[in-house]
Amino acid sequence: MEKSRIKKIIEAVIFASESPVSPASLKSGLPELSSEDIAAAFNEVSNEWNGMDRGFELVKVAGGYQFRTKKEFTEDITGFNKKIKKLRLSKAALEVLAISAYQQPLTKADIEEIRGVDSSAVVNLLMERGMLEICGRKDVPGRPFLYKTTEEFLQTFGMENLSDLPTLKEIEEIEKDLGAEPTLLRPEPETPEPQPEGDDASTPRPDNSQPRDGAENS
């Protein structure tokens, strides 16, 4: 099959698909083509489309490719079509997503330990929206469910994979620039045990493990 036709098939499949299309998924539909040929064609299609001055672009997200309108036209589209609604997530939902993304897989108890509040309702909501999913059970008494983020999470936030997440150091720098409060993702420093001060620091404490004089006869 000619490369030009392969590229047209890729464009047609991506355009018709509601979710990102990966080279592997296209390979299953075109078994006669090699993975190398398909990957090369995907790269060419991506470079060609992103080199055009258009209102949309071909982006790599959640391990695949998807046509998306450019961010600079978001407000124009929203104003034109009132049916398009922005995704709205509460602060609590964003906290749970952030904790899950960096600490996954983790249990609901792990999330609640970091947040300090019950998170059952938020976890259930994020599962309903397809942002979190159960990925197993933790090997501890009670065998609680383990949760992780989904491909829907990657698509929603425009990431190819979890390696696109900012590092904790980058988050600290952003918080510093914005004057924001420290993130929940940063572990709290351990509190050192208090040390004796003054004379108590150099004076050895009496050994109470041995009976004092006369204690045996009392």
Write a compact overview of the structure shown.
The protein has 10 helices and 4 strands. It is mainly alpha-helical and 218 residues long.
What does this structure look like?
The structure is a single chain. This protein is mainly α and 218 residues long. The protein folds into 2 domains: 3-80, Winged helix-like DNA-binding domain superfamily/Winged helix DNA-binding domain (Arc Repressor Mutant, subunit A); 91-178, Orthogonal Bundle (Arc Repressor Mutant, subunit A), CATH 1.10.10. The chain has helices at 3-16, 23-29, 35-50, 74-80, 91-103, 108-115, 120-128, 151-156, 168-178, 199-202; strands spanning 56-61, 64-69, 132-137, 145-149. The strands form 2 sheets. The protein has a two-stranded antiparallel sheet. A two-stranded antiparallel ribbon has the order 3-4. It is globular, with a radius of gyration of 28 Å. The relative contact order is 0.09. The model is unreliable at 208-218 (pLDDT under 50).
What are the main properties of this structure?
218 residues; Arc Repressor Mutant, subunit A; two-stranded antiparallel sheet; 4 strands; 11% strand
By DSSP, the count of extended strands is 4
Annotated CATH homologous superfamily of the largest domain: Winged helix-like DNA-binding domain superfamily/Winged helix DNA-binding domain
Please write the CATH class name of the largest domain.
Answer: Mainly Alpha
Shape from CA axes? globular
Unreliable residue stretches: 208-218
List the total number of helices. Answer: 10
- By helix and strand content, what is the structural category? mainly alpha
Largest sheet: 2 strands, antiparallel
Summarize the helix and strand pattern as letters.
HHHEEHHHHEEHHH
Termini distance? 102 Å
What is the fold-level CATH name, i.e. the topology of the largest domain?
Answer: Arc Repressor Mutant, subunit A
- The total domain count is 2
Strand adjacency order, main sheet: 1-2
Radius of gyration: 28 Å
Instruction: Give the overall average pLDDT.
Output: 76
Helix content: 40-55%
